[in-house]
Amino acid sequence: MKKQPNQSRKMKHGLVFLALIFLVTACTSFQSKKEIGANAHLTKKEKVVALLTSIETGDPTPIGYINPDKYIQHNLKVADGLEGFGAVMKQLPEGSAKATVVRAFQDGDYVVSHTEYNFFGPKIGFDVFRFENGKIVEHWDNLQEIVLETASGRSQIDGPTEVIHLDKANDNKVLVKGFVEDVLKGKNPGKITEYVSTEDFRQHNPAVGDGLGALGNALKEMADAGMPMTYTENHMILGEGNFVLSVSEGQFLGNHVAFYDLFRIEGGRIVEHWDTIEAIPPRAEWKNDNGKF
């Protein structure tokens, strides 16, 4: 039977991608030497942006930024290693993938990106990559569908992108850690004005308006409805300059979820907030054994 053109293209695309992965796996030392040349100047942040952008462009070069012998995957819908990454790419309808990195920052061996995707549908995503010896060895992410009409009128990803005040990074991480413990985890919620600006608090959560009053009202409404938003454990605080990401676990609308909260800090107070909330699938549905966090 003669194959249809679309089927042939998809098969060819999948075979080419898997072949590229095989070459990456087989030629680790060669790639390392090559990277010393053309790509040695790239920062960790630039490598991450290139890798995510390649989802759309199909450029095979950034695959070489991943360690082929050690790639620990925390997206529970994807299997470990380059093979898992390749399998997901193969499932995408040809030409459908879009990836626009809006902001990215680095904290030591970790790089955080905030990206607008079309990846099996329009989504906003946070990705966290960990590097060892210049190669990506671990990946976490959190995705949420795009909402066009939001309470604040802001999108889920717009706003400032420039990383500034690099000397304030540690202070800002301490501030966010305190906010998570005292306010989000409920240890001392009355201290909220010590963390969040009472004059300028811009909100990108699609269901919540700007300002502290709108945040308080939203939390109260959920609690009154018997569906409180509960943060139970914080797993990661990463930041550079005025941007800090908090990765937490908890309950939302009766589901076990991951909370990724990005904060922008000015003058020692949180002035802007972006987030994604993603349900954690049942253990039987996991494609790897690494856990969400």
Q: Strand order, main sheet: write it out.
A: 1-5-4-3-2
Quaternary structure annotation: single chain
Residue share in helices?
Answer: 25-40%
Sheet of most strands: 5 strands, mixed
Total tally of structural domains? 2
Structural class label: alpha+beta
Architecture per CATH nomenclature, i.e. the level-2 architecture of the largest domain = Roll
Count of alpha/pi helices: 6
Low-confidence stretches: 1-38
Molecular structure report:
- The chain is an alpha+beta fold and 293 residues long.
- The chain folds into two domains: 5-146, Nuclear Transport Factor 2, Chain: A (Roll), CATH 3.10.450; 166-283, Nuclear Transport Factor 2, Chain: A.
- 30% of the residues lie in helices and 30% in strands.
- It is built from six helices and ten strands.
- The chain has helices at residues 5-26, 28-37, 44-57, 81-91, 169-184, 211-224; strands spanning 72-73, 98-107, 110-118, 122-132, 135-145, 202-203, 230-240, 243-252, 255-266, 269-279.
- The strands form two sheets. The protein has a five-stranded mixed beta sheet with strand order 1-5-4-3-2, with helices on one face. The protein has a five-stranded mixed beta sheet with strand order 6-10-9-8-7, covered by helices on one side.
- Strand 3 and strand 4 form a beta hairpin.
- Helix 1 (5-26) packs antiparallel against helix 4.
- The termini are far apart.
- The model is unreliable at 1-38 (pLDDT under 50).
